[in-house]
Amino acid sequence: MRQGQRHACVVVGALACAFACERPRERLAVGYMRQAAAALIILASEEGFFRDERLDVTLQVFSSGRDAFRAEMEGRLDAAMVYTTPVLLQASSAPPPRILTMLHQSGLNTAVVARADRGIRTAQDLRGKTVGVPPGTNAEFFLRTLLEFASVGWNEVRVVDVRPEAIVETLTAGRVDAVAAWAPYCDRAARALPPGVAVTLRSDVYNDISMLVTRPEVVTSRRVALEAALRALVRAERLASSDPERLFAVVRRALPEAESTELREQLQRVQLRLGASHILVQNLRTEAEWFTRAGRLPRSPVDLRSLVVTDLLDAVAPELVTLEAEP
Fold first, then answer.
1. 18-58 per-position pLDDT tens digit
2. Closest Cα partner for 282 from 304, 267, 300, 261?
3. Which of 40, 34, 21 minimizes the C-alpha distance to 65?
4. Pairing of strands 158-161, 26-32
5. Among 90, 107, 172, 239, whose Cα sits 20 to 30 Å from the Cα of 195?
6. Alpha-carbon distances, residue 202 vs 56, 98, 113, 115, 189 (angstroms)
7. Do 32 and 212 form a contact (C-beta atoms < 8 A)?
8. Where does the pLDDT of residue 327 fall: very low under 50, low under 70, confident under 90, or very high at 90 and above?
9. Distance CA 115, CA 1 (A)
10. pLDDT tens digit string along 137-194?
């Protein structure tokens, strides 16, 4: 970094701190998942970026974004990290969810892990097999995508409900032939099988996106706190981009249950990215088309653009907002 740039960053940081110090401390309860995709939340917490913004953030751990999202929509949290699928499936509910920013994007974070000893080598081999998946999650959408592109009908596979924390044991015990899950569950399921048994199936036509989501009344009543949280996350994103090794060290300390090699691979597979972009809305629209065809969503159109709140992020980091403001 050049001297002038360094001086500018110091000035901006000092001004932000001076502004923050004038505000009373606020509290936020945020639900998240202990995984590499949550690295920006972890970094903002562990490095004290939330604290610098005079925020007392309580992080509550959930095994899936679906469950964190449910807790948020029920009023037990102020915001939650969640993937697109649960939000989409509740898009027409009242009150509708509100998306504050993306947190990550990846085409490699979600996978089907199958047993080769059950005759599975490719996605086509899933026909007639039993697949475990947490319903209403991005893993369900990934499985639907994988099967459709393999010309395997949803009704040609026996899909069973498996809790995320039971993914590994269910597969290794042989109660299912395959599981659909996100990292770290898919990686741990593959490692838990005997050598040569695990087959990991991914698809380049699928990208998962996680987001920070809240409710309309929280956007209205907690704007100062939410903007402060977004500022902390912007600092985290910049640190993650400029110092990947520091990012790894911080997340490694926060997730001691993850093996070092496993965690490094998972961080390399995700793009830690804040933003309110056309990529996010297009992802939602594509997924909505799939679930509408599957009968999981009503055919009456939902204005998915209206779910994305842009003014809070625009006030913090306008360069991260590429969606036009709503009329």
1. 555 566 899 999 999 999 999 999 999 999 999 999 999 99
2. 304
3. 34
4. unpaired
5. 107
6. 39, 30, 9, 14, 14
7. no
8. low
9. 49
10. 999 999 999 999 999 999 999 999 999 999 999 999 999 999 999 999 999 999 999 9
Element (H, E) at 236: helix 223-242
99 strand-pairing partners: 213, 308
Residues above pLDDT 70, as percent of the chain: 91
- CA 210 to CA 82: how far, in whole Å? 5
172 token code pair: 């290794």
**pLDDT tier at 8, thresholds 50, 70, 90:** very low
Tell me 80's DSSP state. E
Distance CA 3, CA 9 (A): 10
The CA distance from 39 to 46, in Å, is 10
pTM, 2 dp: 0.90
Please report, to the nearest 10 degrees, the dihedral formed by the alpha carbons of residues 211, 208, 276, 233 taken in order: 50
What span, in angstroms and rounded, lies between the C-alpha atoms of 304 and 306?
A: 5
Residue in this structure with the two tokens 């913090």, named with its chain if needed: 316
